[in-house]
Amino acid sequence: MWIGTLFALAAGLVWGLVFVAPLLLPAYPALLLSCARYLAFGLIALPLAWLDRTRLFELTRKDWLEAFKLSVVGNLLYYLCLAAAIQRAGGPLPTMIIGTLPVVIAIASNLRDARRDGRLPWRRLAPSLLLIAAGIGCVNQVELAALRTDREAELGRYAVGAALAIAAVACWTWYPIRNADWLRAHAGRSPRAWATAQGLATLPLAALGFGLFWVWSANTASEFAPPFGPTPILFVGLMFSIGLLASWFGTLCWNEASQRLPTSLVGQLIVFETLAALAYAFMLRGQLPGPLTLAGIALLVAGVLWALRVRPEPLAGVGHAN
Prior knowledge:
Blueprint: H1 2-15, H2 21-24, H3 30-51, H4 53-57, H5 61-89, H6 92-98, H7 101-112, H8 114-117, H9 122-148, H10 155-185, H11 191-218, H12 232-260, H13 263-268, H14 271-285, H15 291-308, H16 318-321
């Protein structure tokens, strides 16, 4: 239980970095950021694939198709929506909406996977969900108040950003549940090899997207300078850093956590990503969080600790059926 939680914590810490890149690269389109990030992930996965070649050869065509689906939805589409949301609404609003993932995933997986993982009783699960929701609400209240004082804020732009963030939530509600399905069905397989497989599956589509954007920029009146834009060193450095840390290492840690913990509990531990993203945002701003934000963070942590005390209960009759 605690080893799985530490893996989820490590994944959250590196995943929080993905919220920073669109803020540091505001001139770069979200589509380019998504394709470049996963192009870097795929290139990083190539030498790793050689190390895991024996285990990768064990994957069937069906497994590779599943890796491709997970990569498209949980990688490319998710980060496209998230990066576009951050560029339109700033860091706080998308972080607020993405912060609902622990509650959304916990509810979805508890409804869907009770027969496999056991049922986390709603009565015992409710306090942790309420604490997490209250913590997110406190943090969101502070961020929304700051948005209301911004005279240059465009409500329409923020609304589009909110809609894109909701789409990102939908992508990343589907991804961990579907990913856990494969990992639980293949308990003897290496989580590291599965993370590498997803990187390899993403590579062709990411390379195609990056190439098409490059060609489009070179043959239109776009002011964007292909292939690496106005700050190439920062762009390339960030993309490879995020590709290695957030995409490969984060996926590896998440796979390790998913094999050790019930899906409904793993879903709540995504709260670590929200905490990390908020911490990085305040570091980027050069500000310390206020009292209400700190209270929200404390509630989030309390909700996670409460959730760790809840144990799944097998459904009546399931054990006899096996």
